[in-house]
Write a structure and sequence with these properties.
- Among the domains are: 115 residues, Pnp Oxidase, Chain A (Roll); 107 residues, Baseplate protein-like domains (Phage tail protein beta-alpha-beta fold, 3-Layer(bab) Sandwich); 62 residues, no CATH class.
- The chain is built from nine helices and 27 strands.
- It has a 15-stranded mixed β-sheet that branches. It has a three-stranded mixed β-sheet with strand order 11-14-13, with helices on one face.
- The longest helix has 13 residues.
- The radius of gyration is 26 Å and the shape is globular.
- The two termini are 35 Å apart.
Length: 442
Amino acid sequence: MADTKTIGEGLLGQDIVDVINAASKNPNPRANQYNLCLHTVDIDMTVLFFYELLMHGDYEHNYSDEIVAKISIPMGDFIYDIFPHRDNFEVSLIRETKTTRITTRFKGALIDNTAIPDNGVYNKATREELNKMEMVKLSVQLIDRYTEALRVTPIDGVFNHCKVKDAIKAGISSCCKKIKVSGKPLEVNLNMIEPNNTFLYKHIDVPTGTNIIELPNYLQNSHFGVYNGDIGVYNKMILDNDKMVNNLYVYPIYSNSAFDKVKKKLVIFKSSNPNIDQVENTYFVDGDTVKIVAGSGTLALDMSSGSLISHGGDVATTSPDTAIQRNNVVKADGTSSSYAETNLSVKTNKKRKDGSNRFNYKGNNSNAYKSRSEVLKKSARHFRIPWIFSNPEILYPGMPVMYCYVKDGVINKVYGTLTKLFTSYNTGKKISNSLIEISVLA
């Protein structure tokens, strides 16, 4: 265990010690125990050798978590019970504490397994003979059934006299009423950060072939636009009052303003002490604010300077709706046009320190939000942050974040979005370690 006196040294030392001391009030994360059961039409099999659970959340590019369980089962049980149903089996992930037992059901898929049956060898042996052989190691992917339903449910039609926020809410609500998972209507809590686009449209048309989970992306990238900083859509089961609740999150990927617009937010403190990885109390939930102490080895990925030189930090568009309002001056030698001030929309994200900047003029554009998103994406900075002894259940996709670190003797605070969360849970040690990635705008 690291000495908090030495951990507390430095400009952020007291903030970090406060988190460590307050974290002693957290429920012991090692009290959590995960178990796994495999289900086919014929059997229910409790997995006795379940040694690692990997959870990869890519909130920038994907719609749901990629969850993989590392297990071992007897060869005979695999050949006779699981392999014949490899295209149609389910998995129960059971989370147990001293007071609760929560079961979540998934569809299962075998990936990277080391036991590909050879009809000339395995099928001639009995179950008992095969079970005396070395156990087979399997990687089993757990596929969220709710996200799968949202992926294949279509939506189309026209939404009249509404904003993009209203269209997203109404579309998801109406479609979910028609979806059934395990014979029950699909219940989804929509968690949406307020859009930058608040224009009231006469009609919003959604073409045939659009799936419900793709609706926010369609609106962002077609004629409308939702956020200035691109858009993320993610479906995730969240633990709420000792039960798993299905949540659909809609959020800007590149934003430094959402932090002050939401209740639940994330603050990360970067320690300069190399012994910080020995500290077990690394997080504390302070009301609606999650405070985390980062592990050592944080990696900064900053391509924004090169992007400023190549692409610039400004974007300007003109609206076709107001293009006819430009002032035309007719002279003897021809016609000279000048745009009215209200017709030119300029978004400045970041300027170079030398004062120079490249200007991006997109011309007539009904969706300035998409153009602004392209500039923000190229100028964003990314941080990969280790989180030792983590608890990923207290974070959510697209969570607004403030990252605090010391550079050149000065405390820096940058704001952005949680874009990735990779977690490994060791079932033997009952501990989780995570790697967080955030995108920030200076």
